[in-house]
Amino acid sequence: NAGVTQTPKFQVLKTGQSMTLQCAQDMNHNSMYWYRQDPGMGLRLIYYSASEGTTDKGEVPNGYNVSRLNKREFSLRLESAAPSQTSVYFCASSEVSTGEILRGYTFGSGTRLTVV
Amino acid sequence: GEDVEQSLFLSVREGDSSVINCTYTDSSSTYLYWYKQEPGAGLQLLTYIFSNMDMKQDQRLTVLLNKKDKHLSLRIADTQTGDSAIYFCAEGRGSQGNLIFGKGTKLSVKP
Lengths: 116, 111
Fold this sequence. Notes:
The complex is a heterodimer.
Chain A: E1 4-7, E2 10-13, E3 19-25, E4 31-38, E5 42-49, E6 56-57, E7 64-68, E8 74-78, E9 87-97, E10 100-107, E11 111-115
Parallel strand pairs in A: 2-11
Antiparallel strand pairs in A: 1-3, 3-8, 4-5, 4-9, 5-6, 7-8, 9-10, 9-11
Chain B: E1 5-6, E2 9-13, E3 18-23, E4 31-37, E5 43-50, E6 55-58, E7 61-66, E8 71-76, E9 85-92, E10 99-101, E11 105-110
Parallel strand pairs in B: 2-11
Antiparallel strand pairs in B: 1-3, 3-8, 4-5, 4-9, 6-7, 7-8, 9-10, 9-11
């Protein structure tokens, strides 16, 4: 099925461990995004990538790194996980033309991360 | 303010109409969006409206846009228990055209 695929769906980490969340899209979208969702906080943008080879910080980038491996894949890395990073992480992609998002974002189903 | 604002909760009875309201901040936003998130799932695009439109209807959904007041609403007619979800309003903003989301309105439908 076409769309955005995130792995893993669930993960439990110990404080200080590292991990990479994977995201891939098969819609040939040029822009990709990582959000976190926390109760009462809505969706907050961590990082985004407007095109292959470029990445930019969003609202809450501290503690994270990203890599736009190619047009399809955009990964999010936690180098040293902290309990404050317990959250649901969503990857999204969109087609952007002349600065306008066309037809909104397509979201993955999320990764539920718990840091203990 | 800087935020997209939505009320956090709405409760309706099955069969009634639901109206979810949103105020946004950027009058230059070209598109405004409504997303639906069911429990344990990602966000699905429900509908969107182009900023030069006042209204868009799609089956049971009606979107109203008041650009002067920067107010967007989503009306769900004949609300069903399957409509229970969190509904997010979003506007396109940012140098790369990022979407800015409201905190979401949790719609509860009582039988």
